[in-house]
Amino acid sequence: MTHFDVKALRAALQTRWLGRQVLYQAEVGSTNDELKKLGETTAVPSGTLFITDYQNRGRGRFDRRWEAPPGTSLLFSLLLRPDWPGEKNGWLTMMASLAVAEAIQSQTGLAARIKWPNDVVLHVDGNWRKVCGILLEGEMTEDGRCRQAILGIGLNVNIPAAALPAGMTPATSLWAASGRQVSRPVLLLDVLARLEDLLDAALDGRSPQPAWQNQLMLLGQPVTVTYADGGVQMVGTAVGVDEWGHLRLQTADGRQHTILAADVTLRAV
Ligand code: BT5
């Protein structure tokens, strides 16, 4: 397994606070779980980064699995303690997907877009394929403020095409999509620099929503919305997103619905 070059990351890091503390282990269950545990038991500063080369229990939303062969991907979590009301945590997922999409565009020239609510996708062979997933887990104080948030990011960097995981949404990696391998530390440095700027702006009250919305690939399109239990489905047009990133779905009867969390797929018409 190619180990992640933590030394190269530390040496080139130019951020003010994000990722200044780097923790690395070659293999863990899930970086979100590791960092959550650390955040509870020790004085881990906001901005701490936990990165691994392999997760044997990598998690997606709704207890799904996140699979990536050893040494091929960026698999990391950031511990954040924004002093704001818990509702604002939706901004964290938005900023993460935005930073990843922009870093991919800048490092590879690939036209990465955001698929609501939390995926970064690439258009490959006529299909939108998932290259990155984001898992945000927040803990609130009794008065509803954010006590701690763990922002987990899984980005398929150098997964060979033959080893891509099969999923609901077809997967890709930067290598599979561009034919070129990408340096994981260099890409991570770019993500961290962009994310730190977005976080500082958000902490200052500036919303990431307009920039995030600009990168969404579903707006104006016919979609099917499926809730996590798989039971309920709604079809309609994705007409927009609100300030907190919730999806506005217009159904055939002309009514608009606000979707907080679900899976959305493009519908052929
Ligand atoms: C996500 O969930 O997309 C969030 C994934 C977050 C992973 C990171 S890795 C570092 C940190 N530590 C963790 O334990 N997790 C975070 P969701 O939208 O529910 O998508 C999950 C679905 O994506 C799975 O059910 C599969 O169908 C598919 N999938 C699994 N691995 C994939 C991969 N490497 N690339 C693309 N799709 C994948």
Attribute tags:
single chain; 269 residues; alpha+beta; BirA Bifunctional Protein, domain 2; SH3 type barrels; 2 domains; 7-stranded mixed beta sheet; 5-stranded antiparallel beta sheet; binds biotinyl-5-AMP
Compile the SSE list and pairings.
Elements: H1 6-12, E1 22-28, H2 31-41, E2 49-55, E3 73-80, H3 90-108, E4 113-115, E5 119-124, E6 127-140, E7 146-156, H4 174-178, H5 184-203, H6 209-214, E8 222-226, E9 233-241, E10 247-250, E11 256-259, E12 263-266
Parallel strand pairs: 1-2
Antiparallel strand pairs: 2-3, 3-7, 4-5, 5-6, 6-7, 8-9, 8-12, 9-10, 10-11
Helix pairs in contact: 1-5, 3-5
The chain binds biotinyl-5-AMP.
Biotinyl-5-AMP (BT5) binds at residues 30-32, 55, 58-62, 64-68, 75-77, 118-119, 130, 133-135, 152-154, 156, 165, 167-168, 171.
Structure characterization notes:
This protein is α+β, with helices and mostly antiparallel strands and 269 residues long. It folds into two domains: 6-214, Bira Bifunctional Protein, Domain 2 (BirA Bifunctional Protein, domain 2, 2-Layer Sandwich); 222-266, SH3 type barrels. The chain contains six helices and twelve strands. The longest helix is centred in the C-terminal third of the chain and has 20 residues, at 184-203. The structure holds biotinyl-5-AMP (BT5). The site of biotinyl-5-AMP has 31 residues, from α2, β3, β6 and β7.
Number of alpha- plus pi-helical segments: 6
Spatially, the strands of the biggest sheet line up as: 1-2-3-7-6-5-4
Distance between the termini: 45 Å
The CATH architecture of the largest domain can be named as 2-Layer Sandwich
Radius of gyration: 18 Å
Q: What is the share of helical residues?
A: 25-40%
**CATH homologous superfamily descriptor of the largest domain:** Bira Bifunctional Protein, Domain 2
Could you give the order of the helices and strands? HEHEEHEEEEHHHEEEEE
Structural class: alpha+beta
Strand content: 25-35%
How many DSSP E strands?
12
Describe the main β-sheet briefly: 7 strands, mixed
Small-molecule components bound: biotinyl-5-AMP
The global form is globular
The residue-averaged pLDDT reads: 93
As for the CATH topology of the largest domain, it is BirA Bifunctional Protein, domain 2
CATH top level of the largest domain?
Answer: Alpha Beta
User: Unreliable segments (pLDDT under 50, ≥5 consecutive)?
Assistant: none
The tally of structural domains comes to 2
